[in-house]
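To: structure subgroup
Subject: Chain for Friday's discussion

All,

I'm putting the inputs and outputs inline so they're searchable in the archive.
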Amino acid sequence: MGLVRLIADARHSVPVFVGAAVTVLTVDHGLRPAAAEEAAQVAHWCRRLGFDHVTLTCRETLPASGVQAAARAARYRLMTDWCLSDGAEVLMVAHTLEDQAETVLMRLARGSGVDGLSAMAPVTMQNGIAVVRPLLGVSRDRLRSCLAAHDQDWIDDPSNHDERFERVRVRKALPALADLGLTPETLSVTARRLQRVRSMLDGAAGEAMGRHVRAYDAGFCAVAPRLLSAEHEEVVLRVLARCLCAVGGEPYPPRQSALEALVNALSGGPCRRTLGGCGIDGTGGSIMITRESGRMPAEPLELQAGTPALWDRRFRVCAEIGQVGELARNGISVRPLDARGWSILKDRGYTCPKDLRASLASFWQDDALLAVPHLRYRRAELHPDSRFTADFCNFMLLDGADRCNLPQA
């Protein structure tokens, strides 16, 4: 509510907000009976401030162990999916100074390096949407004072006091750590300074990407083996982490120890590995990083014609039907190209490496293969204005790499 109130004050005077459409999203995880009522209250406050409001309800069953991490992942999936389907380019979230300090301490306890200790960045990309955190330097007390000054109520989530959760235990330890000088302000300053170091290292990794990596629109990478010997080890680890995140669609890279083990294996000679939802093939002239087919969605993604959606956390997919009645506007689905689909393409003379083709997006209606965009295949009987697109969302993670299209058969 603090972020909402600040945007309400800024929308007529701050250029980035003037004329912008703002919708407030509330996620009901279904974990507490009171959550639905609280979401309705937030909706009332937002409408009173002149904002549209949408409640997103989590339908998936969250695990008993690691529920906060699972809820966070589900929350971002719901919010970025909504942004994608509604055409929103920016998702603003209200992480505060204390959230940043808690993140530093939690990652310090895990032995994190520069990236982990730089904590939350002001801007990140998730599922192709820019996630912006404008309040990282603002304390919770300051936000509460701002709300009180505007006579604006808010709701405190009771789970923020549940000591079963690591973040809550860290939060309650902050006052004692402040006596040692480890205040939220000093921890946040440390994070900002490490963000500068991270930015410098990311710049070096971006330059190395340009020298050693080809990034393909079909969602895979080809890495020159000379990367392993020509670049500093830290740069090598960052390049591989970027490739794995982009191709695997995971929000976070694999653990540092796993990346180091991968580099050691690739440096030792030809090998095949899996990591981060990817298959890594170091047996040829290039190190090929492709999507691990067994980690892709098991269920087809059902599309409404003309409405974009996110598939496999990596592709913005859309089906546009050029002639009413030619195809139903629903019942179109996206799934990995299976053996049956490949047999159709193979009979028409298409070629594609085996490790890659099972990860390609294919559009179907019932048993009819309609299109495989990355192989430039579309069913001949379709109306010329019918379009099927699968745009790779994660090119930003591969910034600096040579962008390539999958060669046409």
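Points worth raising on Friday:
The radius of gyration is 23 Å.
The chain has three domains: 2-182, 211-294, 300-396.

D.
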